[in-house]
Amino acid sequence: MKNLLRIFGAALALLLSVAVVHAQGFEMKSFPGGVGKKEMVYKFLVPEGVTVTNQKGEVKKGGSIVMVPGSRIKLLESPYVKEMQKDEAFMSSFMNADQYFGMPAERVRDFAVISLMVPEGVTIEGGGKTVKGPADLILMVSNGGSEVMEDTQPTGYWDTMGWDMK
Prior knowledge:
The protein is of the alpha+beta class.
């Protein structure tokens, strides 16, 4: 029985390490040099407690999907985010900073911190903060709730639509 538990424990540890490597691979492949690929669309799960209102007045809450073109997103490295914690302007645009900085270090790797260019007419609210476009928004997102896909929209689509919300 002890050997069986050890085998299961080792298998679980291996599975968790593979999941972490997969999440990190998502970040590295999808953000060469830290910037989103212009030919790609990034699909993010809106975090709980955050509300997104688009140009049409449609409201999406935590658990909804937002599609953002790669040209409007940047991945921020963890050491940079920690250093910027001292910057008041940075922190005022970091929507879920309390969750990020209050999280144990081992959980941080399951999340990415991104900078999004919020288009005009879009409002993001959460964590006692409101960001109205055009502005930069700093947001912690789950690697597991994020996807990258080829952008099939016609040229100019994102200039008029800003973000797509599902």
